[in-house]
Amino acid sequence: MSTTSSPQGGSSPSHKEEINWQLPPIWQPIEIFFLPHPQYHSVAGPCIAHLFYGSGPLKKCERHFVALMTAAHHDCLFLHDLHEREFEREGGQFHWLSGLKHMQNPCEKKYHTLDKFIHLISHQPWRVNGEVLKNVIREEDDVIWSLNQLVHAANIVAVTNALCAMVHGLGQIEPMSATQNELNRRTLRAEWNAKELRKSVHNKEVDYLVSRMASLRKIRRDDTESEEVEEEDPVPPATPTEESMAPFFSLTDGDENDSQNAQAHAYTVQSPLAYRDFACRDDPAKTYKIHEFDWDHAFNMINDVDPISADLFDKRFELMQNLTYNTMGDYNNIDTSEYRLAIWNYIHALFGIRHDDYEYQKVNELLSRQMKTFVKTCVCYPERMTEELRNHVMPDFTSSERIHALLIIIEARCQANLLYFTRALNNYYVILNQDQKERRRHN
Hints:
The protein has 18 helices and 8 strands. The protein is mainly alpha-helical. Residues 220-261 are annotated as: Disordered.
């Protein structure tokens, strides 16, 4: 496979690389949920395959160990089992599976520095900055992680955090292959359960959503027509402040006490940490204004190091922001864009990312409290997901639509991770330039 050299060390794949587009059978229990949405499967599958099995600066066993470190934070047994098996299959050192405390060789200390990054990005990503990355990359004057390696690891962490949300959102997934007949029966069972639940609770959520989305489109059309006949320049809407955004950063109640599952203790030496509502944070992080560092900026930074991953991530995000079948429950020919955008922007808001051009009251108008609780649990503390919450959210939706919503959830979560990482990487470059100027001045 052809690669391009990087001045930071390691290698990055070129656009001409032949990617193995197929994931190994061990991924089947989760990959099967991509199949109802073939367009998504066509980009998500290759993205995962490239990160874990394609060419890259990290050894294949190391990639699975990074995913193990990440999955442990969310008590994701399916992914823990998957990556543990793949780590062993790819020739990983057995003692690594006993945890970081058993990894004391000089070549293994890099995972101790990566530990804090995974710890923060998995629970409170707004705390990841240039100084955090500097401490990951360097230990005193020793370069522990090349830039290529760090970007590769960060991409794996983002995807694994997202997959943890999906696994917990779906429910128990056994780490075994299933036959097509079993999968068909599982789908039919899920459809029947959804219909029975719909009958029992007499839920009218879809009826309300269809009506509300139609009202929002009418308001938007009326506003557009008013602007066309307006002679004077309209007064621009006030930019939302952090105080006015607080209700949307904390739209659901939750236990924010620091906690950590026992499994994570083996793969981190950090103090226990959990997600906290962004508006209630006790750190100096400011609201992330998307117009100051958007996905285009993040894409360019990843593209400089790994153009294949950057392209696949870009396709994933663009697809999930636009994919629609124009259906909702028993309704056809429905414009669902407002609903899909409400989910996406709500997730960004949970992590302190603000879109100034978005009217956040739409979140409360379109997402029920139960849906917001489900979304927040998926992306902020997926290990707290309950069977009751899974069974009673989106009762009027078909199984395919529920999976579609979950795919939107995990892609918004993944993008939030990458936005914070690449912004921190940009900040690291600034720190690096300042340090170099300081050294030249003293020489």
